[in-house]
Amino acid sequence: MEILRLSKLEGRDAIHDALVGRIAYDELQNIIDARDKRSEWAAGLRRKLEERFNQMVPLALKENEE
Fold first, then answer.
1. Which of 48, 60, 62, 65 is most buried when burial is the number of CB atoms within 10 A of its CB?
2. What confidence tens digit (pLDDT) does each residue in 37-50 have?
3. What is the pTM of this model?
């Protein structure tokens, strides 16, 4: 919930961000599955996105537990 509040304060739309993120994540997976010259790049970008997400989400969950 904290992430949603932060997005709103930044003038972002959480539903839009989630949908665009899902589409992008699916597209990265399609590139990875194609096993062409872009696959390594797409896999690296997906790892970076997952790392960033994992850095953000635990903080929000900890704050909500207190």
1. 60
2. 999 999 999 999 98
3. 0.67
